Amino acid sequence: MNLKEGIYYIYVTEDASFIRVTDNYYDNVYIEIYESSEYSDNDIIDKNKELECISYFGDTLQALQSCCNGIKLKDELNSNIIATLKQSGYDYSVHDSAIVIKNDIAYVVYMANTSDTGGDNAGTDTCVVKLAKFNLNNVQDTLSYYVVSCIDNTYGTVNITGGSGSPNIIPDETDDDILHIIYSGKADQNYVEITCDYRISSDNIENYRIVQASKDNSIETLNNKWINKEFNLSIGETAFNNMQANSTIGYYDGYYYIGLVFGYNSSINSVSCIIFKTKDFSTWEYVTDNVEMRISINSVFECACICDNNGYLYISIRPFYKTSNEGTKTLPSSNLYGEVVKLKISSKEIVDRTYYRTVSSKTFFYKYNDEIYLITNVGNRRDAEIIKINKDELKSSTIIARIDNSSYSYFYAFVYNNIIYTSYSSSGISISKFNPIFEEKSIIEGKIKNIFDL
Fold first, then answer.
1. Any long-range contacts for 200-208 (C-beta under 8 Å, 24+ apart)?
2. Rounded to the nearest 5°, which phi and psi values hold at 11?
3. Of the ranges 43-57, 67-81, 171-185, which is most confident?
4. In this structure, how many other beta carbons lie within 10 angstroms of the beta carbon of residue 128?
5. Which of 21, 74, 143, 172 could be joined to 67 by an S-S link, Cβ 3.0–4.6 Å?
6. Tens digits of per-residue pLDDT, 97-140?
């Protein structure tokens, strides 16, 4: 068997029946490879997107690379758990997190539901936003919890009258003492975006304000009333509208945030991904609502973005999928593709776009050594993939690591001291880390050749 011969369709099932890699990593590898002609089209994921989709189409070594790196990644995440965040006696369930690290101190924001109502966003009044803070070298003695936002509390001039959720935390690019927190919440009976600042030196959360949208020299509160006016909709002004504040936020000549507009029910679809830009986290400039960014097969559910150093914005789009509480107008998740879009910031022009495999959870970008990576959850959120983005040609991006049966979802990643620190939803908010250096195909080829004496 010569691994260099031929191009195959590689389909890795959940039980890895076509490609099987043992938990002994490289020590023992068993491979079953079939040429595509032996299978019907139904055995291969949607062939209509074959040429445009980042997937397991490709050579044998690419598939082996993703499997071997995935086993290594899963082992690192499981063995490097730093903390599990879930405040005893207060947090009934937790979800949606983001992490920042400065001087060995981790700051993690997340959503906590304080009852068994089952909600996991601002649409549930018992959902609150929390901040956890701890020293990476001594979690037990340094862990502190703070309530960022809770119903029936007033923070400065912001009066919280309902749930809070979808939080994000971002370091200020010019002031090392400030961490910006942004989240969705209900204030004075309207669902809005809210931002506040955590000041490190005083250990204090301050400067709460409701996000304002700036468009055509007009500045108004970013709420359903503004959305209805701009997009000719008729969403009830007090209806729940979650703009997913925990989208990855990119920075270039300001902070770029990808929001989305949807009513979170079966009667209102997403309008589109909408791009905002801010320099102060108070007023968000409306950049574009580009219709071409709408995913063609369905409505948009969650987005993420990141900027490179050359003036391009990379956007990941997760489509709306069919579940019991998210409407009935959508397709089952097994039929859905995520989408990656490359946008030139100066001209607001889409210069490239492609699809990636079925996606069922929030995606997240991170940057390491000037390379861009996208973490996705596929299938039923039990599998995870890391895609190395090819900035010159998106469809040539590579799945460099795949984890099967992981139960990691809603990843957030932060690069600190050349290590990737992650927060993700599990039984609590798990904080772990992994080495960002993955084995290249040439290294795996050599090890496979040794195993099979090729």
1. 200/102, 200/105, 200/176, 201/177, 205/131, 205/146, 205/148, 205/155, 205/181, 206/156, 207/156, 208/155, 208/156, 208/157, 208/158
2. -120, 115
3. 171-185
4. 27
5. 21
6. 999 999 999 999 999 999 998 888 888 999 999 999 999 999 99
pTM score? 0.84
Task: Give the pair of three-digit tokens for residue 360.
Answer: 């069922």
**Residue that the structure tokens 């101190």 belong to:** 105
Are the C-beta atoms of 54 and 21 separated by less than 8 Å? Answer: no
How many domains are there within the chain?
1
Q: Per-residue pLDDT for 13 more than 70?
A: no
Beta bridge partners of 277: 256, 285
- The reply to whether 318 falls in a domain is no
Residue 116 lies in a domain: no
Domain annotation covers residue 446: yes
Q: What is the DSSP letter of 441?
A: H
| Contact call for residues 195 and 202 (beta carbons, < 8 A) | no
Among 21-30, 145-154, 257-266, the minimum mean pLDDT is found in 21-30
Structural contact between residues 92 and 113, judged by C-beta atoms closer than 8 angstroms: yes
Range of the domain at 50: 8-77+442-452
Strand locations in 242-388, DSSP E?
A: 250-251, 255-260, 273-278, 283-288, 300-307, 312-319, 338-344, 349-356, 364-368, 371-378, 383-388
Hey, is 397 helix, strand or coil? coil
Pairing between strand 255-260 and 190-199? unpaired
CA distances from 339 to 36, 381, 385 (A): 25, 17, 14
Give φ, ψ of 67 to 5 degrees: -70, -45
Cβ neighbour number for residue 86 with a 10 Å cutoff: 20
- The residue type of 29 is V
Residue 259 lies in a domain: no
Residues 6+ apart with CB under 8 A from 138: none
Name the strand (E) or helix (H) holding 76. Answer: helix 60-79
- The DSSP bridge partners found for residue 385 are 376, 402
- Beta carbons of 110 and 429 less than 8 angstroms apart: yes
